[in-house]
Design brief:
Strand content: 15-25%
Shape: globular
Radius of gyration: 19 Å
Oligomer: single chain
Helix content: 40-55%
Strand order of the largest sheet: 2-1-3-4-6-5
Distance between the termini: 57 Å
Number of helices: 7
Number of strands: 6
């Protein structure tokens, strides 16, 4: 990954100091159906951080899973061969603008297809030099134009927040769109069922401790 060595060093320290990465997991119910329908034999999480996304992907078939992040010593090397799908979630906004084209060229060169998600809002984290951690902030249209210089086909992908610009690089037939809708319904059912169970457990704990509201 192209980028400022000081930024990479900062993120290496950040990765080692705390656990994070829930953002990618929150997007699983939107991205897993895309992956399940495409069924790539190999997947690369590009800029994986602590690799939470692949740890929770849980596909219904076997696929080679690869991780890459220059700030993580164990994941600092790209796979030796091209992968069928590259997934990059909330990575590009952390790369300085002068390095975006080189990074996208590397991404396009290592994969057949890609899902790319980019946050377009400022981060809560501030870098040691005083800059916002999202050092490259642009609206959806800018990112679409920039990505189109490296990927010949782009279609929008829904995510958990509208502030994210998200795209896949392959088309879908009408039949695949129908199947995708069914997969999304299944993911939503699982997601909301888990939320209800979690809420029920939370209320049960409150009741057991006597802090639940009584009508």
């Amino acid at each position: 990954m192209a980028g400022d060595i000081d930024l990479i060093a900062h993120y290496r320290t950040t990765h080692g100091a705390r656990i994070y990465g829930n953002t990618s997991v929150k997007n699983l119910r939107f991205l897993r159906p895309e992956i399940m329908l495409l069924r790539p034999a190999s997947i690369l999480d590009y800029g994986c951080g602590q690799s939470v996304f692949l740890d929770h992907l849980n596909l219904d078939y076997n696929a080679e899973l690869h991780r890459y992040d220059p700030a993580i010593p164990g994941y600092s090397e790209l796979p030796a061969k091209k992968v069928e799908l590259l997934v990059s979630i909330d990575v590009l906004e952390h790369i300085e603008e002068q390095d975006i084209d080189a990074t996208l060229a590397q991404m396009a060169g290592i994969c057949r297809d890609a899902i790319i998600v980019i946050d377009t809002r400022p981060a809560q984290h501030i870098l040691p030099d005083g800059r916002n951690a999202h050092v490259t902030l642009h609206p959806h249209a800018w990112w679409r134009e920039k990505l189109s210089e490296h990927f010949s086909h782009l279609e929008p992908v829904r995510t958990a927040r509208r502030s994210r610009a998200a795209f896949r690089t392959w088309p879908r037939s009408s039949g695949q769109t129908w199947r995708f809708g069914l997969l999304r319904l299944k993911e939503n059912a699982i997601y909301y069922a888990r939320r209800l169970v979690g809420r029920h457990k939370e209320l049960s704990k409150l009741s057991a401790t006597g802090h639940a509201r009584r009508d």
